[in-house]
């Protein structure tokens, strides 16, 4: 494929607001997970919570969009001069030629969840529940589209935890097909009861900070994040070089044990980039710290890369940000490419015997010319992205 | 609402999948059979505005109780890409799949995504659109009178030309389906069923997906 340049990007997560906060936390090995204090705080878990969302309501003309997820988007969009970069793209191409493609898994469902606790005697929900502007999956994309004054095609991609990786693939196709000149891609997912209790019901949540690939890992820690990137034609210091998408065709919530689908996605991404596996300097793994994911992903990584490519999962820093994981970890790759930093797999100390990838337990300084990021979701939805300097 | 038979799925998955997934797979199976193509060769694009309302209702009801214990099956079925996940299992297909939402523009979004996949990846695409009515009490907040599902198998050189413009969408032919985002495809289905050239405009955010049939 023709490379796409990433001309601006920003991330807000439990590591802080903006990319400098993320880089600083990665450098210092200081994670953002804290003991669960969300809602009634009854689950024994650790979460990657973004501070300050409760005090940042959405007002003015877009007040109907007020919900935790859109508040997180509002804060995320205000960092790193991202809005200015988008304004410049509008100036270059026109608002109709810039698309908005965002991933989320739960959008503003939290408002509906809380509204169900406030049903009246007849079972009716409170009247101020804005289904369209909060719960509906398009809410986040519609909100961002309006904040940025973009008039191009806009849609939400919601394929569970691969959502905000797949937005890059769609954007690349739309630009190649000539229907747009640039796209705001990314994803926003925020803490809610569905995912907290849902993953708990599947026994996938750890009662301690998640430890990807560790022998003693007990599952995931859920996080929340907003991340955005502006992509357009041409080459620059940061580019999307390849993408790969595949389906496991195996089980709704368990990966295929040999990592067959994951392998297919990574192979396709390398093929589109025109690269051999040896050209990859760093892999940001999906690495959720569930026993099944890490084993299957390790199998796929070893089959493709052998044992010689440095791999880490940064979910010990941010938690698993679900529909935002793709963009958050793409941005970890951008930071790796720009600053020569291969981040550690935080909280992990002893890799499970039998896992053979070169999992980084400490930060490493090295030149990174090309990085690959994996994102896998329920329903067997896999996406791999290759970025390069 | 009626639950269509989905012979594609193994019995366990057939019982476990949500109603909206059964609708999605029923139309998908029919479209792929009439196209005469190998199901596993098709990339899949799933478009829906509202996902599965029964599951949202069950999860939110459970979460409102003191124990907040949700069904693990309901939870994994709640992902927007549940239909493509079950399709992959039933069709033994490793092909890429995606799941989109653009509120009332969801079908237009799905068609645009499918068209770009066909143009760039040069492969046939199965496009599935489903929206079902929400149960009370959510129904008041998203009124959808009737369920609707459609599936199209689109191949390179299908004879449809797809672009974006800013004109008004084509009015849907049947008012019964008002509020159902997937039924926005009805003008397109009508044009495909009739012989001759046609132009159909489908809503998508501020833009319109313009379909020219030759």
Model description:
- The complex is a heterodimer of chains A (389) and B (214).
- Chain A is of the alpha/beta class and 389 residues long.
- Chain A has twelve helices and 17 strands.
- In chain A, strands 1, 2, 5, 6, 7, 9, 10, 11, 12, 14, 16 and 17 form a twelve-stranded mixed beta sheet that branches.
- The two termini of chain A are 16 Å apart.
- In chain B, the strands form two sheets. Chain B has a four-stranded mixed beta sheet with strand order 2-1-3-4, sandwiched between helices.
- In chain B, helix 2 crosses helix 5 (82-91).
- Chain B starts with 10 loop residues before the first helix and ends with a strand.
- Chain B is globular and about 60 Å long.
- Chain B has helices spanning 11-16, 19-35, 53-63, 72-77, 82-91, 106-121, 186-193, and strands at 43-47, 97-101, 125-131, 148-154, 160-165, 198-204, 207-213.
- The model of chain B has no long low-confidence stretch (mean pLDDT 95).
- With 214 residues, chain B is α/β, with parallel strands linked by helices.
- Chain B contains seven helices and seven strands.
- At the A-B interface, helix 4, helix 5, helix 6, strand 6 and helix 7 of A face helix 3, helix 4, helix 5, strand 2 and helix 6 of B.
Fold topology:
The complex is a heterodimer of chains A (389) and B (214).
Chain A: E1 4-13, E2 16-17, H1 19-28, E3 34-35, E4 46-48, H2 68-77, H3 82-93, E5 98-103, H4 109-116, H5 131-135, H6 139-147, E6 154-157, H7 163-177, E7 182-189, H8 193-201, E8 222-223, E9 225-233, E10 239-247, H9 260-273, E11 282-284, H10 291-305, E12 310-312, H11 315-318, H12 325-339, E13 341-342, E14 358-359, E15 364-365, E16 370-377, E17 381-388
Parallel strand pairs in A: 4-8, 5-6, 5-7, 11-12, 11-16, 12-14
Antiparallel strand pairs in A: 1-2, 1-9, 1-10, 3-4, 7-9, 10-17, 13-15, 16-17
Helix pairs in contact in A: 2-6, 7-12, 9-10
Chain B: H1 11-16, H2 19-35, E1 43-47, H3 53-63, H4 72-77, H5 82-91, E2 97-101, H6 106-121, E3 125-131, E4 148-154, E5 160-165, H7 186-193, E6 198-204, E7 207-213
């Amino acid at each position: 494929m023709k490379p796409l340049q990433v001309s601006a990007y920003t991330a807000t997560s439990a590591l802080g607001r903006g990319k400098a906060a993320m880089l600083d936390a990665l450098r210092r090995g200081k994670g953002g997970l804290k003991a669960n204090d969300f809602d009634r705080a009854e689950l024994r878990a650790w979460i990657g919570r973004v501070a300050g969302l409760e005090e940042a309501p959405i007002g003015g003309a877009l007040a109907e969009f007020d919900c935790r997820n859109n508040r997180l988007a509002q804060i995320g969009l205000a960092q790193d001069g991202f809005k200015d970069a988008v304004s410049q793209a509008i100036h270059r191409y026109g608002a109709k030629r810039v698309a908005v493609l965002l991933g989320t898994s739960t959008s503003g469902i939290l408002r509906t969840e809380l509204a169900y606790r406030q049903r009246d005697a007849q079972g009716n929900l409170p009247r101020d529940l804005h289904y369209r502007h909060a719960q509906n999956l398009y809410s986040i994309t519609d909100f961002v589209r309006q904040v940025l004054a973009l008039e191009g095609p806009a849609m939400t991609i919601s394929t569970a935890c691969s959502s905000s990786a797949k937005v890059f693939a769609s954007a690349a196709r739309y630009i190649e097909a000539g229907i747009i000149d640039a796209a705001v891609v990314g994803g926003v997912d925020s803490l809610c009861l569905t995912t907290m209790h849902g993953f708990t019901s599947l026994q996938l949540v750890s009662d301690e900070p998640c430890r990807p690939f560790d022998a003693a890992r007990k599952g995931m820690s859920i996080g929340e994040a907003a991340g955005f990137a502006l992509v357009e034609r041409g080459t620059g210091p940061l580019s999307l070089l390849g993408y790969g998408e595949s389906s496991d065709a195996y089980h709704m919530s368990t990966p295929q044990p040999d990592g067959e689908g994951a392998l297919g996605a990574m192979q396709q991404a390398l093929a589109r980039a025109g690269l051999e596996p040896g050209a990859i300097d760093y892999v940001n793994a999906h690495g959720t710290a569930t026993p099944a994911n890490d084993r299957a992903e390790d199998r796929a990584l070893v089959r493709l890369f052998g044992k010689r490519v440095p791999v880490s999962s940064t979910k010990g820093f941010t938690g698993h940000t679900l529909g935002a994981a793709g963009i958050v970890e793409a941005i970890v790759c951008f930071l790796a490419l720009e600053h020569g930093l291969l981040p550690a797999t935080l909280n992990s100390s002893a890799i499970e015997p039998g896992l053979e990838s070169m999992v980084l337990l400490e930060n490493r300084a090295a030149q990174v010319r090309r990085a690959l990021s994996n994102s896998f979701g329920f329903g067997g939805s896999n996406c791999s992205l290759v970025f390069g300097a | 609402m009626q639950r269509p038979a989905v012979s594609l799925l193994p019995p366990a998955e057939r019982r476990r999948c949500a109603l909206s997934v059964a609708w999605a797979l029923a139309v998908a199976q029919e479209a792929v059979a009439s196209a005469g193509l190998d199901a596993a060769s098709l990339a899949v694009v799933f478009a829906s505005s509202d996902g599965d309302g029964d599951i949202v209702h069950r999860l939110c009801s459970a979460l409102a109780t003191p124990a907040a214990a949700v069904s693990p099956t309901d939870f994994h079925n709640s992902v927007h890409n549940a239909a493509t996940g079950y399709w992959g299992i039933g069709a033994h297909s490793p092909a890429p799949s995606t799941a989109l939402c653009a509120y009332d523009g969801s079908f237009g979004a799905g068609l645009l995504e499918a068209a770009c996949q066909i143009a760039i990846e040069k492969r046939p695409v199965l496009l599935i659109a489903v929206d079902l009515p929400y149960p009370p009490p959510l129904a008041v907040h998203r009124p959808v009178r009737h369920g609707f599902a459609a599936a199209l198998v689109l191949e390179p050189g299908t004879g449809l030309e797809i672009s974006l413009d800013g004109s008004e969408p084509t009015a849907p032919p049947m008012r019964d389906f008002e509020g159902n985002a997937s039924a926005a495809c009805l003008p397109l289905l009508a044009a495909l069923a009739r012989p001759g050239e046609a132009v159909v405009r489908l809503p998508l955010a501020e833009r319109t997906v313009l379909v020219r049939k030759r």
